[in-house]
Amino acid sequence: MHTLNLGILAHVDAGKTSLTERLLYAAGVIDAIGSVDDGSTQTDTLALERQRGITIKSAVVSFEVNDITVNLIDTPGHPDFIAEVERVLSVLDGAVLVVSAVERVQAQTRVLMRALQRLRIPTLLFVNKIDRPGADAARVLDDIAQKLTPAIVPMGTVCGPGTHDPRFEPSGATDVAFASRLAELLADRDERLLAAYLDGDALIPYGRLRHALAEQTSRAEVYPVFFGSAITGAGIDALVAALTELLPSTDGDADGPLSGTVFKIERGPAGEKIAYVRLFSGRIQTRDRLLVRSGQERKVTAIHVVERGAAARRRVVTAGQIGKLWGLGDVQIGDVLGTARATSDGRHFAPPSLEAAVVPHRASDRSRLYRALTQLAEQDPLINLRQDATRQGLYVSLYGEVQKEVIQATLANEFGVEVEFQASTTMYIERPSGVGAAVEILGRAPNPFCATVGLRIEPAAPGSGVTFRLEAELGTIPIFVYKAVDEFRQAMAATIHTALQQGLYGWRVTDCTVTMTDAGYISPISTAADFRKLTPLVLMSALEQAGSVVCEPLHHFRLEIPADTFGAVMAILARQQAAPHTQALRAAAYLLEGEIPADRVHDLQRQLPGLTRGEGVLESAFERYEPIGSASAVPTRPRTDDNPQNRDEYLLHVRRRV
Ligand code: GDP
Question: Is 466 helix (H, G, I), strand (E, B) or coil?
């Protein structure tokens, strides 16, 4: 049976959770429609999600349409939980991006669409809430074309928008205007259609157009737009039909080599780890032994497969499906089981740009807090727990203030630890400003380790992350320590990744390429530890030579305010270093857009209601990192690692541990 692993994505409040509920109802999985407003939905089951009416964790439910199992993955829309969305994207066959008919394209809608486009995930757009006053199909289409993509085609028309009983009427073969819009759009990317279109061949068969539409949608080249209402049910049938007609389902190759990705981890009732795996190829059975990241083999003790609404116990999970696996011990989110998929790649969204210290109310709770945060960080790797050895502080990375409240409530409710967060501080990054190289040779002072390591670091394009490679001429690879070159490369990449968490000013170093230029060992004396311990020293020398520039995170903001508050708001924006690039007057409202330092967003958000009689609407999303101005002092962060920047201190730490 074919499977479609479908993601539903949206800016918060556009109606994802309600739409999920509606789809499950339409498919007959549930008999009654739950409501987010009274907390009775299938997804959003965490108590916190119900209290706050937002999705925090992704949830998987499934239903069947035309013999295809649709695994529907509901994801959080609030920007503080973008990490959860990031994990899900890597396992999707297709997506529905929900846009509100009234609020139209919002900050997070753009962020999500950019990621979907970058990953070429086939996507249908669903314009929800056409029953609400102010719903305007033409304006939404305009907004989508301007801010998301011009390659759209409205799949029907809306009758009675803004009423209790709006309808969506799908366009069909008899709608000449629709067929010609399809032909025009699709011919752009299909030479044979283009030839027919230019010949003035008005009679391109409708079936051929629909076929081309499905093909181009599957390649994420065009985006069909549907309209409806998750509350009244309008347009839902057309959307459901399109899921199977226009999005590509897979059955994968169950007999092929094992390939799967872990995209979610949760703890069972007894505290046991459960890994959610999307299988792209092959199969996993109970009692199979799988290799996890730590290099250990783990035995699968139980499998549940998500199907028909719930996860049911099975002996095997096969390609295309999503399975919940027990027994994998230290498995982590993002782990690949078997071979990695060629297209799987790193990060699609910006990492968190804030950090805050967590302090337990009772000092005696410190070690419980540490354990609890370690568990949370394992479910959400971007929380990135950092411990400051000297000051005994515990820090977590954050996307925003809402996430803080959620972590605080989770620690209290699930772990019984009451905590306070200190004020968030910005996490800057460092980029190398030039090229630097260093080498330490085995047996030659001052190298105390039984290995030779030479490294070069150089700047790479902004946003490209860290790339590690072995220089082609590298002759000797310590194969006797590692089973294969690949394993050596992976081990070195991991060590370098860790060492780059703290650069010359204490910030994470990124957007660079690190090349291993020399490697040497003596058989059989050198060990993996020699390479692991020497590498940070060499890397820091190379970085010192290259120099680094500290960059701060900027958000793009969009602010709507009543016209008469313009002066007051502009004064505040200036104080927050947020000069708008564009301003437009629309009726009695000003629309301001620009960039603002990430750590000023919260303050602005707080002041806005007072300044604008509660009418101001602020949206913001991470945009880019910008080198800090030469006028300001370079911010630094105290190191919490063994300090490879100071050779004596580093060797002292490393030896003491031995
Ligand atoms: P999510 O945050 O994207 O998951 O959105 P929810 O499904 O939680 O919905 C947010 C709010 O919008 C809730 O109060 C819903 O009742 C409401 N809502 C969702 N869909 C519709 C719709 O089609 N019409 C109307 N009028 N309200 C809707």
Answer: strand
Which ligand 1 atom lies nearest to the CA of residue 229? Answer: 23
Give just the sign of the alpha carbon dihedral 226, 231, 234, 239: positive
228 Cβ below 6 A of ligand 1: no
CA distances from 548 to 16, 125, 416, 452, 466 (A): 42, 42, 43, 25, 14
How many A from CA of 35 to the centre of ligand 1?
A: 9
Please report, rounded to a whole number, the percentage of residues in the chain having pLDDT higher than 90: 41
Sign of CA dihedral 153, 155, 160, 161: negative
C-beta of residue 623 within 8 angstroms of C-beta of residue 595 = yes
Read off the pLDDT band of 82 (50, 70, 90). Answer: low
- Mean pLDDT score across all residues of the chain: 85
Q: Is the pLDDT of residue 201 over 60?
A: no
What CA–CA distance (Å, rounded) separates 196 from 212?
Answer: 13
SS3 of 222-272: CEEEEECCCCCCCCHHHHHHHHHHHCCCECCECCCCCEEEEEEEEECCCCC
SS3 for 548-588, per residue? EEEEEEEEEEEEEEEHHHHHHHHHHHHHCCCCEEEEEEECC
Q: Above 60 in pLDDT, residue 374?
A: yes
- Give yes or no for a contact between 447 and 441, defined as CB atoms under 8 angstroms apart: yes
57 CA distance to ligand 1 middle (Å): 18
Could you tell me which residues come within 8 angstroms of residue 625 by beta carbon, excluding any fewer than 6 positions away?
429, 431, 462, 551, 552, 553, 554
Per-residue pLDDT, averaged over 311-337, amounts to: 87
Residue 232 CA: which ligand 1 atom is closest? 23
Among 23, 36, 40, 50, which is best to mutate for testing ligand 1, by the most ligand atoms less than 8 A from CB? 36
C-beta of residue 519 within 8 angstroms of C-beta of residue 453 = yes
Question: Is 265 in contact with 374 (CB distance < 8 Å)?
Answer: no
Find out whether the beta carbon of 352 lies less than 6 Å from any atom of ligand 1: no
